[in-house]
Amino acid sequence: xxxxxxLPTTHRALVLDKIGEPLRVETRPTPQVSPGTAxxxxxxxxLLSYSREIYNGTRKYNLPTPCVPGNAAIGRIVAVGxxxxxxxxxxxxxxxxxxxxxxxxxxxxxSGVHDGHTEASKRxxxxxxxxxxxxxxxxxxLENCFPLNEKRLLGDPSDGxxxxxxxxxxxxxxxxxxxxxxxxxxxxxxxxxxxxxxTGAFGSAAVQVALSMGSSVIAMGRxxxxxxxxxxxxxxxxxxxxxxxxxxxxxxxxxxxxxxxxGPADVFFDISPPQAAGSTHVKSAILSLRHSGRVCLMGGQxxxxxxxxxxxxxxxxxxxxxxxxxxxxxxxVIQMVESGVLKLGKxxxxxxxGRFPLENWKEAFDLAAEHAGPGERVVFTP
Length: 382
Ligand SMILES: NC(=O)c1ccc[n+]([C@@H]2O[C@H](COP(=O)([O-])OP(=O)(O)OC[C@H]3O[C@@H](n4cnc5c(N)ncnc54)[C@H](OP(=O)(O)O)[C@@H]3O)[C@@H](O)[C@H]2O)c1
Hints:
- This protein is α/β, with parallel strands linked by helices.
- It contains 12 helices and 17 strands.
- Strands 3, 4, 5, 8, 9, 16 and 17 form a 7-stranded mixed beta sheet that branches. The chain has a 6-stranded parallel beta sheet with strand order 12-11-10-13-14-15, with helices on both faces. A two-stranded antiparallel ribbon has the order 1-2.
- It starts with 9 loop residues before the first strand and ends with a strand.
- NADP nicotinamide-adenine-dinucleotide phosphate binds next to helix 6.
- This is Putative alcohol dehydrogenase.
């Protein structure tokens, strides 16, 4: 039998031969470490509500193929390159799939999801980093492995632990993405932030993150039932006066009037999917900001969005786009979670709704697409 942290010669990996073709599980050589890298055993890897759309080609994301797809994961370090200074075999880590150019951190790509927007990012992903985390083992840049305080996070509350499960830890991904955007726009204690749509995976996590950072939230969404569920849950956690809800009705005047009841907002955070093309919430939210308000656009709408320019100009508004987050944001979210400021598990309203081996990839992608609701999580346990 292999020693607990030794690498077997082969492992199982989910393989995408070509975008649009069915995936398959293959037994292949286990990735080997080289300087600057770590190999981790994948304990649990997350899915997106739109993972199926990425790999069947609907989303038109580019990826090198063949490849091992993937997403953020929780793993245990098994081997590290000779230049590693921090990790030891057995360490529990969060694996961040946002890979940056080492010689130019403004170049980025998402391992197993998207090869980025530049020639340089594509070169990086088509060579060294083509294989991601939907596998028993994954090789990652050392700096993409973030140490987790296992005793604190998984330990029993009677022993000073937070009592989370390994799967609970995956919820840090939907938290890190909006944290990146909210930090980029300088969200501050006591700011009032409009979050829209607040009923999806990243939007509902954005609500929790903003509240945990000391802001108050106006959550927008078109599905009134889900919106009320989000409002009610976080009102029970943070207090009724910290969160309000305003439905997206696609009537700008009505939305602006509803938002105005809570006074001018300081910040607007957008995390729309492509399907929200034409939704009025962006315009309504911008029209509802105070003088010197800030806007962070993280949504993935493919069509141009109408911006009320005169209002932006007269009110000195700042508009900032953000793709993903900074490295420091990952460490900061982990710190917030370990300190207890930012909750996971049931206190975050998050739960696993499906857990699959790699072989059941189709069922996993289908379930993730159906369960895009707040806090819902589908995972691979390779
Ligand atoms: N900038 C970045 O770094 C970054 C990172 C990750 C994701 N994203 C973007 O964020 C998007 C959301 O991701 P997610 O995982 O949160 O998706 P999700 O869980 O599928 O949620 C999508 C949300 O959009 C709402 N929505 C759908 N169609 C709409 C419409 N026509 N009008 C208004 N709202 C609508 C849904 O609400 P209903 O209940 O009304 O359907 C739901 O709240 C992704 O599609 C991606 O483009 C950006």
